[in-house]
Specification:
The complex is a heterodimer of chains A (205) and B (302). With 205 residues, chain A is mainly alpha-helical. Chain A has helices at residues 2-23, 27-50, 58-71, 73-78, 94-97, 99-119, 133-142, 147-150, 158-168, 174-178, 182-200. Chain A is built from eleven helices and no strands. The model of chain B has no long low-confidence stretch (mean pLDDT 90). Classes of the chains: A mainly alpha (205), B mainly alpha (302).
Amino acid sequence: MQFKTWIAAAAISSIGFAAFAHSGASGVVKKRMDAMGEMGKAMKTLTPMMQGQTDYEPDVVRSAAETILGHAGAEMTSQFPEGSNGKPSEALDVIWKDWMTFEALADALQVRAEGLKLAADNGLAQPGAGLGVEGTMSGQAMMGSGHAMMGGSQGMMGGSQGMMGVSTGQMMSAEMLAEMPANAAFMAVTQVCSACHQKFRAEED
Amino acid sequence: MPRIGRIFIFLGCIGAVGILGLKAWPIGSAPRPGALEEIEGSVDRGAYLARASGCIACHSNFDEGRAPLSGGAPLETDFGVFYPPNLTTDPEHGLGNWTVSDFARAVRQGVSPEGDPYYPTFTYPFYSEFTDRDIADLWAAFLTVPPISEPAPEHETTFPFDQRWGLKLWRAVFLSEPDTGSDPARSDDWNRGRWLVRGAAHCGACHTDRNLAGARVAKREFAGNENLPGGKSAPSIRPAELLDSGWDVSNLAYSLRTGITPEGDVFGGSMAEVVNFGTAFLSDADLTAIATYIMDSDLSGD
């Protein structure tokens, strides 16, 4: 009996160790990886819905937006204390060198996730057909990054504005997003994810 | 004189003559006089093509707060550190003094107005089939970029890679036309996608292994690259691997707009740059075309 208990304990602890060794993460790093994973799951649910491939459900959109909200803003930045860099974390050191930008992106995520939540009842711009060019264009124009296609002397100058719009959290409020089709608000959220990953996450090996 | 010494002198002479010859060897060719000047380029179309071609992504360094196209982030390669130059209309540090023919030769042939070959970190081999119309449109768009009077840093290369004449040999051995031509048996989407993927968008520049000389390995087309500048890597974008990872035409096109992967992750690093400064600006039709071609690409060398 005692032997069996010992075996069971060893088995359980080795499983625990295997799980630990698998990600190699613990403490705050593990916590923020789990948070990212939860947001990823929310995005995975929303992505086909926003393309009109699965049935649009406002409640699901709201709940996914709330998941993201729960991990955004100050909650996000609190998961990145100084010194929590290095393997196995994928966070780049530049986070702590350019904390203001990181903070601004975390805040922008909060604002945009709030906007997505408010826009949930608006549905898609073109139900069942994914996001058409028109929807895309207006979405980007709202974000100040659509000039490249809209021409004039602004022709080549769109990019930095788009990025600055994201990183400073300017250009877009939750109220503005609340007026947009949900798929455009969703795209605004993805822009923040992308801008943050571009600058602050290591590329996979 | 011992025989071995004579051989060395002989080889040395051949080498010296060879290098002088290489230095003098003219590369590139001039376009038909007046042909480009006759075309009135469209700024909108040119800006769109510049997005698709990665000009803005590579020649801008937004992180450092530099103005768009005034010089890009350094590329750390096995051959040295390369700084994408200033492409604004500044006459001294940019291309303000260029003619449209200079521009055409630079983009399509990788040859500077002075006749020097560019390093292949500049992805000109993918642009060599650009039409005069494409060039005129791009040029019109570049002329709208305000001048920034600030040079990009000099490339940091060591011998022998600092000898630009060596690139003429590289060109002779490795330079080939991109496979951007149309296949009448395929759909319009697929053909448009082929033109973008193998041409302008130059996906293969990162998603294909390179040999020791930095040239793409045809047999490894789109199979990924573990040794990108800065120690980065790019995964395979061959159809079989993409299908295995849950990609299809629709979610691939959507990811080029938003960065979202089928797993709900969002691209980081260089691919995020490609999306945020490039493909996010393309039309739905073009993104679908790119995805259509990538999910059903014709691989060479297999």
